[in-house]
Automatic annotation (TrEMBL):
PANTHER family: 4-LIKE CELL SURFACE PROTEIN, PUTATIVE (AFU_ORTHOLOGUE AFUA_4G14080)-RELATED, PTHR35040. Pfam families: Spherulin4. This is Spherulation-specific family 4. It comes from Streptomyces lavendofoliae.
Length: 202
């Protein structure tokens, strides 16, 4: 199983859940680290510790960076990428809010190059919907669906090895069609504060 887990909870508030993530290392494609809707303004010691533990367990740590659908300046995105590397040892980049239309491809090509130069061995673009094919060569993984199970279960989405589906509000019986995936029970404004079913804590 290849789980890409965006878990947006503070380690001090949910230590058991972070322990479960570390223990599940063999199941994980990677974990998205998101201390403050990005790297934040200063290192957070609790996130430094969990990032170290994840890497020691062989898990790819993906630093969360918002790109605001191409509107966020390149320099600001790069600052986040470098902070994730320097503060948390992130060896991957999770670029969020990526558009689907082809007009932004060159912008994201430059961001992908910058992410690699900042030390990201793995680059993930989160479109949340199926993007133009021109994005395929820009990253290791494209998130081509992010949304609720009630929508996902009725769709017949294209599938490829470099596609990922992130589904919330999902039942324990949910089956996702991509190799890399994550289905969580959480709903509402903060669904990624819950772990995927294989890792649920009591």
């Amino acid at each position: 199983m290849d789980l890409l887990v965006p878990y947006y909870e503070h380690p001090a508030a949910r230590p058991a859940e972070w322990d479960a993530l570390v223990a599940a290392a063999p199941l994980l494609y990677g974990v998205v680290l998101n201390p403050a809707s990005g790297a934040g303004r200063a290192p957070d010691p609790a996130f430094v510790t969990v990032a170290d533990r994840l890497r020691a367990a062989g898990v790819c740590v993906l630093g969360y960076t918002d790109t605001d659908y191409g509107r966020r300046p390149h320099a600001d995105v790069l600052t986040d990428l470098v902070r994730h590397r320097d503060w948390y040892g992130a060896d991957g980049a999770f670029l969020d809010q990526v558009p689907t239309e082809p007009g932004a491809v060159e912008h994201y090509r430059r961001l992908g190059v910058a992410a690699r130069a900042a030390g990201a061995a793995t680059v993930v673009l989160n479109h949340g919907a199926h993007p133009d094919p021109a994005y395929a060569g820009l990253a290791d993984l494209l998130v081509t669906f992010e949304g609720p199970w009630d929508t996902y279960r009725d769709l017949d989405l294209p599938v490829a090895d470099h596609y990922c589906h992130l589904v919330y509000g999902a039942p324990a019986s949910a089956r996702l069609s991509t190799r890399v995936k994550c289905a969580v029970p959480g709903t509402g404004a903060h669904p990624w504060g819950t772990l995927p079913y294989p890792l649920e804590c009591p």
